[in-house]
Amino acid sequence: MAATAKFWRWQESRYNLEGTHCTNCGSYYFPPRTVCPQCRRKGSIEPYKFKGTGEIVTFSTVYQAPRNQNRQTPYTLAIIQLDEGTRMLSEIICDPQTIHIGMRVRAVFRKLGEEGDRGIIYYGTKFVPA
Predict the structure, then answer these.
(1) What span, in angstroms and rounded, lies between the C-alpha atoms of 114 and 98?
(2) In the prediction, which pLDDT does 67 show?
(3) How far apart are the C-alpha atoms of 101 and 117, rounded to whole Å?
(4) Are 90 and 55 in contact (CB under 8 A)?
(5) C-alpha torsion sign, points 56, 58, 63, 66
(6) Are 108 and 86 in contact (CB under 8 A)?
(7) What is the pLDDT of residues 35-68, one digit of tens each?
(8) Mean pLDDT score of the chain, rounded to an integer?
(9) Phi and psi for 12 in degrees, rounded to 5?
(10) d(C-alpha 24, C-alpha 119), whole Å
(11) Phi, psi (5° rounding) for residue 76?
C-alpha cells in the first residue's frame, strides 16, 4: 500500500495544477503537452505551474450519479477558464444554486475518489468560489 501512495505523490501535475507553456507563442496548456499545437517544431515547451484562479465558462449539475460511483449528489462540473487562458473541466465545491457563469473560482486540493478493494484514496484539484 505504501508503494501506491508514493506513486500518486510522484505525479506532480496531480497535486500542483501543472501544465506547460510555449515560450514561442505564449500559449498555456493543461494537461501538459510535449509539443505546441500552434507552433509545432518551432515551439519551445516548458513546465508551468498555474496560479489556480479563473472563472466558470459553463457548468452542469449532476443530480443522479452513475451506479458504480459512490458519491454524494448533487455535484457540479464546470469548464473553467484559468487566468492564463487555458480551459479545464473540474468539480465545483459549493451550493449548486449559487453557481453562475462568470463566477470567479480558485483551485483547492481535495479527495477525488477511492480505488480498489482496499479503498486507496486519490486526490487532485477541485475548485471553490474565490
Answers:
(1) 28
(2) 76
(3) 39
(4) no
(5) negative
(6) no
(7) 999 998 888 999 999 999 999 999 999 998 877 6
(8) 86
(9) -55, -40
(10) 44
(11) -120, 130
Contact present, 106 and 127 (Cβ < 8 Å): yes
Give the C-alpha separation, 83 to 81, whole Å: 6
Q: What is the pLDDT of residues 10-44, one digit of tens each?
A: 555 556 789 999 999 999 998 889 999 999 888 89
Three-class SS of residue 32?
coil
- Output phi, psi for 69, to 5 deg: -105, 125
Q: What's the whole-model pTM score?
A: 0.80
Burial of 4 per CB tally in 10 Å (0-12, 13-18, 19+): middle
| Displacement of CA 119 from its chain's centroid (Å) | 22
Nine-digit cell at 64? 443522479
